[in-house]
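<context>
A single protein, sequence plus fold
<entry> Chain with its tokenised backbone below
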Amino acid sequence: MPIDAVARLDREELRALLAETIDTEVSEVGDDTDFVRTLGVDSLMALEVVVVLERTYAIKFTEDEMRSVRTLNSAHDEVLRKLRERS
């Protein structure tokens, strides 16, 4: 994987991006905090999260992958996997 892809995926920046997108405090976005169950993210907001990730990191998610992005850890893992695939 190219170094620039690794450099673009900072966990704390991702946490801040997710918090901003779902309109919550960064401190509320724990590594395993479920966006839907814990933070009350609805389906439209979940879609917005995926769109923001796609635009920010220049990647595309399948429908199944979209459903798997429910926590910071899962978002990080999916984005990292997509960046590796792209390289």
